[in-house]
């Protein structure tokens, strides 16, 4: 048994693609004999963890509790957790970069974006999931990050199996829109609007947002367990995923494994497995008319749709499983465990400097322009509201985005 103690610093255990990837790698390491801890920033419950079948074997503890322990390697998994590394007792630290996360925030919030980018200057062992991120870390920050592409659960995502509703050749193809609401770069409401404009008559929604009804949508699947998602994918013909910031997004690849195809923007990371007009359709970012025209073509031309679905299955067949992917992650981890020691004091100095620079630049920014209430501040406020009220607000937010949201990317 490998007795090395590994700690992943995780922002949230709620349903998300990033958390899914962390859980898959962590569970594999647990199976290989490592002592694995997930130290989580946001509060969680048994219900929070229930969406993934492997969380039951993992040790998940609050971040503050884990600070009292010692580990052989501590791995930050998103930008805020990098600033927590100084508080963890370990000889070595690492950073699993799933996107360049400064892109998550508005371009006019330059101090905040700079604060996020400051985390990529830390002297850590780096690993990432996409070529574009690896290249960015090298060219912009001087890090030689290891590349470990995400795998797919071949036991879960496959073309055969149960479905919520069978695909019918005699009916118009069914469209599935996937994504959260309230996250501007996900463009989930925009996907619904454009599907309706293209003439789609049966639109389903798969979302991590707490919603039960969305205008223009036939079926809503909210926060479903992992084993339910392939039943939804196998019921639909075309996935619409119009996010404009990604690392290496998983839903189109999972849809490929379940026999469907996808329409996506030319978002970063799409080219890890999507080939335009071979297994899916790639539309230039912001080309709303292009999305509508592409979807109309697939809704009316069954031969073209089936050609793309065949190409998607061929891509799926050659794609790596999670065991293969996580074996590569383990190789990186072993190299990190043998890598240079990093003093906590160095991390503390870099953290102090990053926040000092942020406070100085943010004060200057606010002095020059009227203060806006950013979404990250609204989220912090919403976290203090009663759960039922938050769910009601989320429901109104989703409907409002579909009804009144602009016909453009954000």
TrEMBL record:
InterPro entries: Glyco_trans_1. Signal peptide: none annotated. Transmembrane segments: none annotated. Residues 220-310 form the Glycosyl transferase family domain. SUPFAM superfamilies: UDP-Glycosyltransferase/glycogen phosphorylase. Keywords: Transferase. This is Glycosyltransferase.
């Amino acid at each position: 048994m490998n007795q090395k103690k590994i700690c992943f610093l995780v922002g949230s255990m709620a349903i998300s693609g990033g958390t899914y990837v962390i859980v898959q790698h962590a569970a594999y390491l647990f199976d290989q004999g490592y002592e694995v801890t997930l130290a989580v920033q946001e509060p969680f419950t048994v219900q929070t963890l229930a969406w993934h079948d492997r969380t039951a074997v993992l040790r998940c503890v609050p971040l503050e509790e884990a600070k009292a322990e010692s580990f052989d390697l501590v791995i930050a998994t998103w930008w805020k957790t990098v600033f927590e590394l100084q508080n963890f007792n370990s000889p070595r630290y690492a950073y699993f970069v799933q996107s360049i996360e400064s892109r998550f925030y508005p371009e006019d919030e330059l101090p905040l974006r700079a604060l996020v980018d400051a985390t990529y200057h830390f002297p850590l062992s780096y690993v990432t999931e996409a070529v574009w991120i690896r290249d960015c870390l090298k060219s912009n920050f001087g890090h030689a990050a290891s590349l470990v592409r995400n795998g797919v659960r071949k036991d879960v995502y496959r073309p055969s199996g149960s479905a919520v509703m069978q695909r019918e050749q005699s009916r118009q193809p069914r469209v599935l829109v996937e994504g959260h609401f309230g996250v501007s770069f996900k463009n989930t409401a925009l996907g619904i609007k454009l599907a309706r404009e293209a003439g789609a008559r049966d639109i389903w929604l798969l979302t991590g947002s707490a919603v039960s009804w969305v205008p223009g949508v036939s079926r809503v699947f909210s926060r479903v367990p992992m084993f339910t998602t392939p039943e939804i994918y196998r019921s639909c013909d075309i996935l619409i995923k119009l996010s404009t910031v990604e690392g290496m997004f998983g839903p189109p690849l999972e849809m490929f494994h379940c026999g469907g195809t996808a329409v996506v923007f030319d978002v970063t990371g799409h080219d890890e497995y999507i080939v335009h007009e071979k297994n899916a359709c790639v539309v230039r970012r912001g080309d709303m008319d292009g999305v509508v025209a592409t979807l109309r073509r697939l809704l009316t031309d069954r031969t073209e749709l089936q050609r793309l679905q065949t190409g998607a299955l061929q891509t799926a067949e050659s794609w790596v499983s999670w065991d293969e992917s996580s074996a590569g992650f383990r190789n990186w981890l072993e190299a990190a465990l043998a890598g240079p020691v990093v003093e906590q004091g160095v991390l503390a100095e870099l953290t102090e400097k990053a926040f000092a620079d942020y406070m100085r630049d943010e004060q200057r920014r606010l002095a020059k322009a009227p203060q806006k209430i950013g979404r990250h501040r609204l989220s912090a406020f919403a976290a203090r509201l009663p759960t039922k009220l938050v769910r009601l607000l989320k429901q109104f937010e989703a409907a409002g985005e579909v009804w009144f949201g602009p016909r453009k990317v954000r």
